[in-house]
Amino acid sequence: MNVTLRQLRAFLALALARTGSFTLAAERLYITQSALSGLIKEFEQTLGIRLVDRSTRRISLTGMGQELFPLVEKILHDLDCLLVNVAERKSLKTGLVRVAAPQLMASTLLPEMIASYHAEHPDVHIKLVDSAVESIVSRVFSGEVDFGIGP
Amino acid sequence: MNVTLRQLRAFLALALARTGSFTLAAERLYITQSALSGLIKEFEQTLGIRLVDRSTRRISLTGMGQELFPLVEKILHDLDCLLVNVAERKSLKTGLVRVAAPQLMASTLLPEMIASYHAEHPDVHIKLVDSAVESIVSRVFSGEVDFGIGP
DNA sequence: TAAAAATACTCCATAGGTATTTTAT
DNA sequence: ATAAAATACCTATGGAGTATTTTTA
After folding, report:
1. How far is B76 from chain A (nearest CA, A)?
2. What's the Å distance between residue A100 CA and nucleotide C12 C1'?
3. Closest CA–CA distance from residue A23 to any residue of chain B (Å)
4. Which residues in chain A touch residue B43, judged by CB atoms under 8 angstroms apart?
5. Is the C-beta of residue B1 closer than 7 Å to nucleic acid chain D?
6. What are the tens digits of pLDDT across the range B106-115?
7. Same domain, B76 and B101
């Protein structure tokens, strides 16, 4: 058997559960005690070493379990950071950007710029708002547009 | 769907495959091209972003794929280090240790020491080799024992 | 047109749940 | 005696393979 992320997350939840209980840790993972028991058993078998001392009243990590805990925590933390990072970067590549510009500019310079930008970032939609020069700033401040272009 | 280690390893193998081919990368993972294709597809769907530009002649990572690559590599590297580490520590907690000692010591001091050590490390077996004082060193050098104790 | 990726489909392994048994206090 | 972990068993999901289709240089 190979180590899986599910096993690592199970171990981490168990190690973090200050209550020291399979049942409690399982609830936090939204799985049953039975499933958590199985995951920890798998993990221990894969490593070939016992990580948790069980008793019916309270559980605690073995020496090896305590050594492993911060390392596993770091790996999962790194992974979660990576996933969040991707999600954030992705959000920069999609969505809607609203631009206020004077009508002359909106009909001459901008279409070409928008077209080339669209080629690079096809999932970003751009909404052009024709504005009198003197109202551009107020539209930005009001939040009606994301930014404005003026002379 | 959740990210899995298999998906991460698949992505890493593909990114590392300088040949730029699903088929080749799949072989290194000892899975079929079909399975690798599925894993990458899953991974991309989970992240909601494309990581690999495919063509029938050559594949390459997208911008996001290139950013992700070193991060994924690090996480998997950390994990593999952790597993090796456990294996090494485990080997310190099992196995056989051979000790050469003079008969007097072997029958007086050592039994108690061995007993208390055994309580801590039940999987380490200790073999006592009675030796004349003058032969202890040579037994160590010959590799017949792991270490010797003498006056 | 040929080489490579994607897909359809099938089978089996495994994950997780429920119900029950075992264990330790 | 009781509370908690382990286990037995069942079902459903998913992973990987084979065979086929689609794609693009």
Report:
1. 9
2. 60
3. 23
4. none
5. yes
6. 888 888 888 7
7. no
pTM summary value: 0.74
Q: Using the structure, give the distance in angstroms from the CA atom of A5 to the C1' atom of D9, rounded to a whole number.
A: 26
Distance in Å, alpha carbon of A58 to nearest chain B alpha carbon: 21
What's the pLDDT tens digit per position in A134-148?
Answer: 999 888 888 788 888
DSSP secondary structure letter of residue B10: H
CATH (domain of A142): 3.40.190.10
Q: Does B48 touch chain A (CB under 8 A)?
A: yes
Distance A64 CA to C11 C1' (A): 39
Q: Identify whether residues A85 and A111 lie together within a single domain.
A: no
Same domain membership, residue A73 and residue A27: yes
A24 touches chain B (CB under 8 A): no
For residues A17 and A75, membership in a common domain is answered with yes
pLDDT for A88 beyond 90: no
Mean pLDDT, to the nearest integer, of B91-105? 80
B145 CB contacts (<8 Å, ≥6 apart)? Answer: B98, B99, B100, B127, B129, B139
Which amino acid residue lies closest to nucleotide C24, measuring CA to C1'?
A56
Contact B133, B151 (CB under 8 A): yes
Long-range contacts, A15-24 (Cβ 8 Å, 24+): A15/A61, A15/A65, A15/A69, A15/A72, A15/A73, A20/A58, A20/A59, A20/A60, A21/A58, A21/A59, A22/A54, A22/A59
Provide the pairing of β-strand A95-101 with A147-148.
Answer: parallel
The number of domains in chain B is 2
Residues B103 and B130 in one domain: yes
Q: Which domain holds residue B18?
A: 5-89
Please, which positions of strand C sit below 7 A from a protein CB? 2-8, 14-19, 23-25
Looking at the fold, whether A35 and A74 belong to one and the same domain comes out as yes
CATH number reported for the structural domain that contains residue A9 in this entry: 1.10.10.10
